[in-house]
Amino acid sequence: MNASNVATAEETAALDRLYRDFKSEHMIPLWTQTGDLMPMSPTAKAMPHIWKWNTLLPLAERAGELVPVGRGGERRAIALANPGLDGRPYTTPTLWSAIQYLGPREVAPEHRHSQNAFRFVVEGEGVWTVVNGDPVAMRRGDFLLTPGWHFHGHHNETDRPMAWIDGLDIPLVHYTDTAFFEFGSDEVTDWTTPDVSRSERLWAHPGLRPLSGLDERPSSPIAAYRWEHTDRALREQLALEDEGHPGVVEPGHAAIRYTNPTTGGDVMPTIRAEFHRLRAGTGTATKREVGSAVWQVFDGEGTVVLGSKETRVGRGDLFVVPSWVPLTLRAESELDLFRFADTPVFERLHQYREEITR
């Protein structure tokens, strides 16, 4: 460049050649990418979005009539695809969620995969998921784990269909090229239908840990976190608030986190799961945080404010909160919500940040 900072024709031609040579050698100069690669704050490609349960469930029912379940298709699961992610079957860049539908007397064959998975049941019962040979009953309000590389299949023992929500870290595993998959039994390895799984009998006693399992495990050994325990914990938090004692996270807002009893940390290495209850007429502080989350309304009615947009939600509705998008919840009736997020990933990377406005 000359003293007047105006490029000569020779300098312009040389610069053009330089960029062509960069391209031919698969090189990209940082100075042309800084705004995209290093923004002043997160600029999520994923968009806030709400899926209505009264739309999702009829579509899943139609799939149940037309699409068989079994080896090949493996699962009748319909992913919730974020409209900002270019048609990929991802709810966020790290999280996959879907509605899964199993018809009367149907069996989903066993398989296993690297991806961590869970199920959350918003309505219905009569399906057992068999995880590493342990039959686990699925009922309304239950949060059920299938950690990575655990064989699992499902069977419906009733004459009624059942639908639930699946959550997995599929996008994260896909992006990092770390996925493995393996077929298991064409049916399930245990057809019994116990009320309580073997894992619960061993591990699901509050504050008590078996001496036969003192090693730390990357994922929780508890196959099912039952609704009756979740509900009781939330009710007691609000009762303590009524009595003037600490317990709620903010006025009228009770919440619990599902934990791994061998570490005290999250139930799985890549997924955090929580349950929240708001008293009628209350609302949360506005919060934004690094990482993404998916929420499902378990019961009640209220509004969700994502960024500047407010939408009314009710039982079964799901919504996605992308990274650094402000979220506020407001309850019309008592409002129960299940939440899962990728927070453990960013905490381990020391990249987690949050901002709360009251």
The parts where pLDDT drops under 50 for at least 5 residues are none
The ordered H/E elements are HHEHEEEEEEEEEHEHEHEEEEEEEEEHE
Q: Give the helix proportion (percent range).
A: 10-25%
Overall mean confidence score, pLDDT: 96
Structural class: alpha+beta
What is the number of strand segments?
Answer: 22
Strand content: 25-35%
Task: Measure the end-to-end span.
Answer: 53 Å
Shape: globular
Strand arrangement within the widest β-sheet reads 1-19-16-21-14-13
Strand count, sense and barrel status of the largest sheet are: 6 strands, antiparallel
Counting DSSP H or I runs of 4 or more residues, the number of helices is: 7
Radius of gyration: 24 Å
Defining traits:
19% helix; 7 helices; alpha+beta; six-stranded antiparallel beta sheet; 358 residues; globular
